[in-house]
């Protein structure tokens, strides 16, 4: 049972009286209480944030009390505690990035910031000449940039180390007064997308060595953050190289968590038969949309559905987000819905298909489960059908199971391989060769067979017989096959790997090279004539070359 009320100008020492008349209740009203209860009061005085469990939140001790049969009990509650320990704790590889946005400051008429945690790769400090692909991560509902400082769950979920090319990850804070602004420009939350693209990305590029081309910028998100990643990709296709969304919020409002918002007599609480609609796909824990909204009303600003209204909806005359539906009847307001259409991603793509077809080709990646507890699979199905009809190439996968967490070892590998392929194939030569560290910046070889350095060494050409020096900073390998192949080599110089070069002893006859364990000799077999010129021999000989100097 929860009760909530808004207040203003409450001063220390003054009593704040909560009654059944000035408060909202979830599961009961104050006047319905009878018997024994425990209570804790929580005060949220931060109007810039929707998250309650954070530094500065005030709360009382737990109180056990009894309400008499007449319900006339008065309970004295003292607010005597404050949440602490919310400071951002930097490490060698996790840094706080906080930028005051001129655009947002002008919108709010008060200082406004964009915050993020920057997660650096292990080689960053030792490779001062290297620029890295950057992955912008938009977490799911309730998570902020602080999450990466508490444990390594987010780092593991998105594969921030041990997958292909080293990358810089930027883990963003989407929290604001009305929920998550999901980096979309809106009447209620301000120019969030514009400030991100026009202000924050240049600010990041001045502070850290990140790629400055679209082929080196990637968007990744989960749930509400998945919607943010796709929204930015669709609206700024020339700025970003790819978006990957896990279980994204509704992408087509014909199936908005199970509701067709455009349908005749659309209602958020009741179906066509008059039954209450489910908020979650669960028989064990039934929970209706009407109950969900009652709960959010009690908790105040910043709930999930108010968050939708703040992003997708217009600004009301009272300066607050215009409500999409009546909170008592569930009836959809058609005038309010008209503003939402601008944020229906499927509709936006369909309206702009001719200009977006080529720009978004192979840039949209979505994974959702058919048993998603919030019915998010429905809108993904509709988007998949639309993109197929529009002949817009995308990778959309609907898993049989997984509920709201579709991240797996397989999906992480696939995501990083796609990013690496885009970066290495499209980046200018200076960026392609910018991989640094032993083994071309890749994960050291192990006992499990897997493609090594996709797009760097493993390309569409036939590469074989790779061999590294003991320190992992020089590599020899063969490209081609009998009778004509060539031995190439690359080395790390001043923290950056050189482009492939033909080994001076190779010619166009060689194949199957192998360095000695100490790296001082290289053995190879070849059909080259002993004179070093002329046509290949009919048989191969073994050759040895020795290293002279460095």
Structural features, described:
The chain contains 13 helices and 27 strands. It is of the alpha+beta class and 550 residues long. The model has no long low-confidence stretch (mean pLDDT 90).
How far apart lie the N and C ends?
74 Å
Instruction: Tell me the radius of gyration.
Output: 29 Å
Number of helices: 13
Major beta-sheet overview:
8 strands, mixed
Shape type = elongated
As laid out across the biggest beta sheet, the strand order is 8-9-11-10-16-17-18-19
Give average pLDDT, whole number: 90
The low-confidence parts are none
Estimate what percentage of residues fall within beta strands: 15-25%
What class would the helix/strand composition place it in?
A: alpha+beta
Primary descriptors:
550 residues, alpha+beta, 13 helices, 27 strands
Question: How are the secondary structure elements laid out?
Answer:
Blueprint: E1 2-4, E2 24-26, E3 35-39, E4 42-43, E5 58-60, E6 63-67, E7 79-82, E8 94-100, H1 102-108, E9 113-119, E10 134-138, H2 147-150, H3 153-157, E11 168-172, E12 175-176, E13 179-180, E14 185-186, E15 190-191, H4 192-207, E16 217-222, H5 224-235, E17 242-246, H6 289-299, H7 304-312, H8 334-340, H9 345-351, H10 353-359, E18 364-369, H11 377-390, E19 395-399, H12 409-426, H13 429-432, E20 463-468, E21 474-481, E22 484-493, E23 496-497, E24 501-502, E25 510-515, E26 521-526, E27 541-546
Parallel strand pairs: 10-11, 10-16, 16-17, 17-18, 18-19
Antiparallel strand pairs: 1-2, 3-6, 4-5, 5-7, 8-9, 9-11, 12-13, 14-15, 20-21, 21-22, 22-23, 22-24, 25-26, 26-27
